[in-house]
Hints:
The chain has 420 residues and is mainly β. The protein is built from 2 helices and 23 strands. Helices cover 2% and strands 26% of the residues.
Amino acid sequence: MPAFRKKLSVALMGGALVCSGAIGKGKPTTPGGETGVNNLSFPVILSDNASPAGFPLDGAWRWAEITDPATQCLGEDGVMPGQPVPPEYVCYYGRHVTVVSETGSIEFDGDPMVWWLQKRTQNFWKSLSVGHDVSTPLAVSAVDVGDLLESSPSIQTRQIRVEFNMLQHVTADDPELGQFVVTDWAAAVPFPCLVPNAPGDSLDCFAALGMSGAVPGTEQSGNELQGSDFGPGGTRPNPGTQMLLDPSTIREATPADGSPAIPVNALVYSSCARLVIQKIPDHTSPAWDRSSGLWSGPGVGVPLVNLAAYTGAWSTEITSGGSIVYGYNWNAKTAATGIYRLTMVLDGNDSEGPVCNTQLATEFAFGVTKLVNQGENNLSTLIYAGDSDLGDEGGIVYVDLELAAKGGGGGGGKGNKPTR
């Protein structure tokens, strides 16, 4: 196998909070109390063929042994919004859980089954993570900016969750990554997927795991925990589905331009990504300064946040649902009211501007890359690789956000440069 196709591990760290407290029915009979990291449940392409230091290696999947789900697992009556699952529970037994974002109420659907919970050392699974040939840049299919940033007309809180995500559609005839695309999902574990059963084994295909939904918590809650229904199989009661899922049926990617939805096979991680947050004047159009890698112009503030993934200052996280996200908790307590530009830039390798320490092989390409899942208030904006405003950057995506005084209001800031 060529070096660039070597499977690299991205079982990312830091995506969920440690659980505590006491809820549920019965005393669990499975010893526990240990916590681990969240497991990767959705495939990832390492577009610069580099992964952050410290990611666990591929390896055999493992599951806590469950002989009596009714007593060993948290039941449906223990699922309560905003309440974390005690760490001694390694599983949830019940139906799939949905939290209605508008009301915070819980809905159940499907049949009861065992779901092996995230962040438990007894449970380990990992979807495919695969490198990329850096001789040709990967043109990202879609960019998704966090719902909070795009949907809030103004924000009064000063603890702000910042999220960016890159998503990729891969066709079966792709000369590099097409080998991992499943074309027939009739089998529970379809070709070319191979469930890992030894150290170093990889799943070997773009497939996702079925997840339980919020167990418990809300879509906005750090207490949210999810579990996989895959399980070990065998003769145990409700042993798990032993079924992999088509990731293109799970991840939503609706383009802002009204074109058809993009089937998503994998998420994208670029080690050359950098996060910049600057205050900008209202009703003006700051210019991108390729020499500093910042926005510039009259009234543009110095960066309050300027963190690069390639220095380790900005990291991806793995969520409780098993997806990676470029996330950052912005403490804006000392920030003045006004408009702020939140920018994700893919830094290049020449001496002009910030220099990524690995070869940039990721780009937002005109005619290929689209903004998806756009919010209703603050319109995100793409600037493509090769744009006259850029140097050798692989592209920029940004959103303008208004910080309002507590108790205040106002309309959301808008991007000033149209998507091209």
